[in-house]
Design goal:
single chain, globular
Length: 399
């Protein structure tokens, strides 16, 4: 594998990419309650915005792996920003026509851009350095990513000059024009970014012997730790999306003032966890142990949300966000270990699992309509329990 001892500059560029991913997804925190208020749709219908965004991961993850093989990581990242810009531009006519269908299409196109970008940056950061310290590098990227989630609704509210409860759909025209311009500039920047094309150990046919576990295997289905890791990531992304994207809606449903300000607390919880990961992994805590601690924290946080008074439970959402902090950084290297020449294909499977961000929030939305906002968070419990199984047993299964 081609690695440089000093990868500070590549880390800075990839950190910028992770920030843009978080910003793009954080826009949903503003759009979901706005659509509920202005289009008079149910919670389940408004969460279709998240479903449209994340469903692209299932459809385009494997094609993106082929794109990376053809044009490399850096050009793939640049391509993603062009796709993002097209999706954000479509939000303007969607608002003017008040068309939920157009909003869903715009969100889907943004989801395609997100898929293309994440399929490039996640394996890149994983194999940029030693695999045993990958969780530490991904934790650094996580800080960049999650700090961007609350920036998006705050940015929209600042440019529009209104709280989400007072805004109308046509108010989003100006901020989205600004976002389109920024993302096009980022695409040009990435074309000239100093990012070398790197490969995982054993990914080249000539180096296949360096990864004996992958030798003789013909399909990613022969890697149980990868398949189970993809399922765990599916559930994780769904739960994390709930923690980050539903807080504003939850606070608004309780009639709390300035509900958009509550978006920052789950992100703070995530950042606290990421900092702990940077300090502790791998010297004092290995990746599997970090995953177990986070899963137990998620179980406790879920129980606090559903059993404490609503005005208190809204703060417990930050606890399940804290629990999510080291799950992604831990699962990625555990699931991608020893894939050899299947590294890019395995990475595309893990990226496809991000579709959990479509399924779990959509189920949450309809569950909210049926049993209420607070009790809908029960959906998090089985997700954390499966991730705990993966941390204890699933990541160790080898065939």
């Amino acid at each position: 594998m081609t690695r440089k001892d000093n990868y500070l500059l590549p880390l800075a560029f990839i950190g910028l990419m992770f920030f843009t991913v978080g910003f793009a997804l954080g826009i949903n925190s503003y759009l979901v309650p706005l659509l509920q208020a202005t289009l008079d749709v149910s919670s389940g219908e408004s969460y279709l915005i998240l479903a449209a965004t994340f469903s692209a991961f299932l459809i385009f993850s494997y094609p993106t792996a082929q794109i990376i093989r053809r044009i490399g990581y850096r050009r793939t990242m640049a391509l993603s920003f062009v796709i993002f810009a097209a999706g954000f531009l479509l939000f303007v006519p969607s608002a003017r026509t008040e068309s939920l269908g157009l909003f869903l299409l715009a969100s889907f196109i943004c989801g395609v851009g997100n898929t293309v970008l994440q399929a490039a940056i996640n394996p890149y950061i994983t194999i940029l350095g030693p695999i045993e310290s990958a969780a530490r590098r991904i934790s650094i990227m996580g800080i960049c990513n999650k700090l961007a989630w609350p920036v998006a609704p705050i940015f929209l509210a600042a440019v529009i000059g209104k709280e989400v409860s007072q805004a109308v759909l046509t108010d989003i025209d100006l901020p989205f024009y600004i976002i389109v311009g920024i993302f096009l500039l980022l695409g040009v920047l990435m074309l000239f970014a100093p990012l070398e094309e790197i490969k995982a150990t054993g990914e080249d046919e000539a180096e296949a012997a360096d990864c004996p576990y992958a030798t003789g295997k013909s399909s990613i289905r022969q890697f149980p730790h990868l398949i189970l890791g993809a399922i765990a990531l599916f559930l994780y992304v769904g739960v994390e999306t709930l923690a980050l994207a539903t807080t504003v809606d939850y606070a608004a449903s309780l009639g709390l003032p300035d509900p958009q300000d509550y978006a920052v607390w789950p992100s703070i919880g995530l950042v606290v966890g990421y900092v702990a990961g940077i300090l502790l992994i791998p010297k004092r805590l290995d990746q599997a142990a970090a995953l177990k601690i986070c899963c137990w924290t998620g179980v406790i946080g879920t129980l606090l949300i559903v059993f404490t008074p609503a005005e208190i439970s809204v703060w417990s959402v930050s606890l399940i966000a804290l629990a999510c902090s080291l799950i992604w950084p831990a699962i990625w290297p555990l699931a991608m270990a020893d894939l050899g020449r299947f590294t890019k294909t395995g990475a595309s499977l893990l990226v496809a699992s991000i579709v959990g961000g479509a399924v779990i929030p959509l189920l949450f939305g309809f569950l909210k309509d049926a049993v209420g906002n607070q009790q809908a968070y029960w959906i998090c419990l089985p997700c954390y329990l499966f991730m705990l199984y993966y941390a204890c047993y699933g990541c160790k299964i080898r065939r």
